[in-house]
Design goal:
Helix content: over 70%
Oligomer: single chain
Strand content: under 5%
Shape: flat
Number of domains: 3
Distance between the termini: 28 Å
Number of helices: 11
Structural class: mainly alpha
Number of strands: 0
Radius of gyration: 27 Å
Order of helices and strands: HHHHHHHHHHH
Length: 290
């Protein structure tokens, strides 16, 4: 599935070269995207990705516009035609924003995965170093089994095999990694390698700090759950129940009634709220391996 997506993206990149001159004009205003592309492991220049965003957004917008025109022809509703012309610029801007934000979202997901596996990988690395194994061989041994962290280690190993020194390979890895914890940890390792100090001491401090940070994140998450639970009870249970009761009493006095459309609307709002609430809880949950 990933290979198919990459092939499709490459084809779109080739077709989007026609917009390269416009991308060059926009690029100075989107310099932060360059870091996002680097951390998301996108092998494209800033101008290439902006051109790709313009092409993809324009293509999707045209498809949407044609769909609305067909609906207008079939239904003969003037409102659909007005909607088609009015929504084109807004839809194009939304698509552009979504595509330009994609590398940042990918980088955040990678950082989250790295942060979840990093303490265990670093503890494994500490054991290897304590056993007297050089750091290069230790990284080779840990380049499997720790998700994105292993991929980072594998890239360091590949760069060393390609002719770079261990220090240069680690520096490149630090610059490209989206995880703050990873960068902070390997800066300490890098300083130990440069100064010639004992690597075991640096690794022990890194592992101890990571374990403390994990405990703090668990406590913080537990504290955040209390007000979030109250908010859920209020908006998902109490407000709908009292609201429907109040509407029933009110419509009794006015001689009306609560129709099915209103009940379905309330149900739809509750479903959307609960899905959003669960996603918010999931995003705040610390990434820990059991």
């Amino acid at each position: 599935m990933i290979d198919v997506t990459n092939k499709l993206e490459k084809k779109l990149m080739k077709k989007s070269r026609v917009f390269y001159k416009y991308a060059k004009k926009i690029a100075p205003y989107l310099q932060g995207l360059k870091v996002d592309l680097l951390q998301a492991r996108k092998k494209y220049s800033l101008e290439e990705y902006i051109a790709f965003s313009i092409y993809s957004s324009l293509k999707t917008t045209i498809m949407m516009f044609i769909t609305l025109i067909f609906m207008w022809i079939i239904l003969e509703d003037a409102l659909i035609l007005k909607l088609a012309f009015a929504s084109v610029p807004l839809f194009f801007i939304m698509m552009m924003y979504t595509i330009l934000a994609k590398p940042k979202i990918m980088a955040k997901r990678m950082a989250r995965d790295i942060d979840g596996e990093l303490p265990y990988a670093m503890r494994h690395l500490l054991i290897e170093i304590r056993s007297g194994i050089p750091i290069y061989e230790s990284l080779v041994n840990i380049s499997e089994g720790y998700g994105y962290v292993s991929k980072e280690f594998k890239e360091i190993v590949c760069n060393v095999n390609g002719g770079k020194s261990e220090i240069e390979a680690i520096e490149d890895s630090i610059l490209q990694s989206p995880s703050t914890s990873y960068r902070r940890s390997f800066w300490q390792i890098l300083n130990s390698l440069k100064t010639g100090t004992t690597l075991e001491v640096a690794l022990k401090n890194i592992v101890d700090n990571m374990l403390k940070e994990q405990l703090l994140s668990i406590k913080k998450y537990g504290q955040e759950l209390n007000p979030l639970t109250l908010m859920y009870m209020l908006f998902a249970v109490i407000v709908p129940s009292l609201g429907i009761t109040f509407l029933t009493i009110l419509t009794t006095f006015t001689g009306g009634g609560i129709g099915a459309p209103m009940l379905y609307s309330i149900l739809a709002v509750l479903i959307v709220f609960q899905v959003m609430f669960l996603n918010m809880i999931k995003s705040r949950r610390p990434v820990l391996q059991v």
